Amino acid sequence: MQSGETHVELKPLQQHGWSVSQLAREFGLSRNTVYKELANPTPRIYSRRDCPMDFTAAQVIYLEQLRCAESPSPCTPNDQASFR
């Protein structure tokens, strides 16, 4: 769900005769999500996600190899250090 506001809008629209499929299309949600939202008396609360972590050593090496493979000129060890 995008917000609690969407949850508040779903129930009255359903009471006015909107089908679950129509609600899903209107709000860009899956029908399963609409069913879950209509079944709950209050909006679901989503916890905030943790910030992304730094790259692991393996990810850095992969990105270096990928960048060098796409580069028109050969990469030197100094070029590869730019990801660290």
Describe the protein.
- This protein is mostly helical and 84 residues long.
- The chain folds into two domains: 4-39; 49-84, no CATH class.
- The protein contains five helices and no strands.
- It has helices spanning 4-15, 20-27, 31-39, 57-70, 77-80.
- The longest helix has 14 residues, at 57-70.
Distance between the termini: 37 Å
- What's the pLDDT, averaged over the residues? 80
Which stretches of 5+ consecutive residues score pLDDT under 50? none
Assess the beta-strand content as a share of residues.
Answer: under 5%
- Alpha-beta content class: mainly alpha
Largest sheet: none
Count, helices: 5
List descriptors.
5 helices; 0% strand; 2 domains; single chain
